[in-house]
Write a structure and sequence with these properties.
Blueprint lengths: L1 E5 L6 H12 L3 E3 H9 L7 H5 L6 H12 L8 E4 L5 H9 L6 E6 L2 H9 L1 E3 L6 E3 L22 H24 L3 E5 L4 H16 L1
Parallel strand pairs: 1-3, 1-4, 2-3, 4-7
Antiparallel strand pairs: 5-6
Amino acid sequence: MNIIMFGPPGAGKGSVSAFITKEFHYPHIAAGDIIRSEAKKPHNKVEAFMKKGELVPDQVMMELIEERLHQPDCKKGFILDGFPRTIAQAEFLEHQNIHIDTVINLVVDEEEIIKRLSGRMMDPKTGEIYNIYTMKLPKGIKKESLTQRPDDKPEVIRKRLQVYNEQTAPVMKYYQKSKVLIDVDANPDLEKVVDQVRLVLKNKRK
């Protein structure tokens, strides 16, 4: 089964994808991981754009994704995370005869996302990440000693969500027309979200 995972920052795409990989054995293909891997190669296709702070162009991203999807481990299915982000990228998959069976859209309330992301704090001494809202801090770790990344501040998170919604709305409509888009309530805890996704995939596999 070929799956696309949609969801705003903080929706839990990575955690849900890890579950799918473990239970259904589909490789998790994250666009960000592909870009980072490509950047390590000599004479690569992405370094020049990254140095300028520019997004990797559609055409380059398409070439990298196509190459990855033709690896042997993708023959029985895959999970795409972070691609497609544009209509052109979605159409590219179709033109390459890469059929998408299911698009899972993790839906989370904006305030819940802000709570999840703004609660992420780092121990500057160890680099460990904690969430002051969703987990109990280990003994000896004080909230006052932790630091917050600039992009985890509430005002920045709201801007990130706005950009995400503007960018993905057309792609969502594209897959709604194909009747493969399924909304999953990702507001509850991870276990409940995973139960919903498990049911979606099992029904699709029948």
